[in-house]
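Worked example

This section walks through a single chain of length 129. The input is the sequence exactly as stored; nothing has been trimmed or padded.
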Amino acid sequence: MPSPKPKTILIVEDEPDTAEMFAQMLRLSGYRVIKTYGGISGMKQLLHEKPDVLLLDIMMNDISGLEVLRFLRREPQFESLPVIVISAKGTTLDINTGMEAGATVYMTKPVAYLELKKTVEDTLAKYSQ
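Given that input, the structure is written out below as tokens.
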């Protein structure tokens, strides 16, 4: 029997080093990882890929991750996509704003490997079809 297809994680982060660090963490956990830099390219990538989970930064150079999130929640094909926000913005107001915009989980940077691994696993377990 063939092994199950690995789950796909799309990382939308404007800092290449940070995106690569998250990608390495997730590859170690057996996931297929796609990276894209910036909100606009992230939205374009979503039209070509159907990730199981989206990792999304908030502060990006082109458009805010919050705008990406609000767009996703308005679109029927993306409204149920689990989105894990990973941001340096960590005040209660920032977290509440992210959750109200449609984040499934809100994590603050820096994120440790085991914390990210567990959050992705828990999110997939809860939201996978």
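What to look for: Residues 85 and 106 are 5 Å apart (CA to CA).
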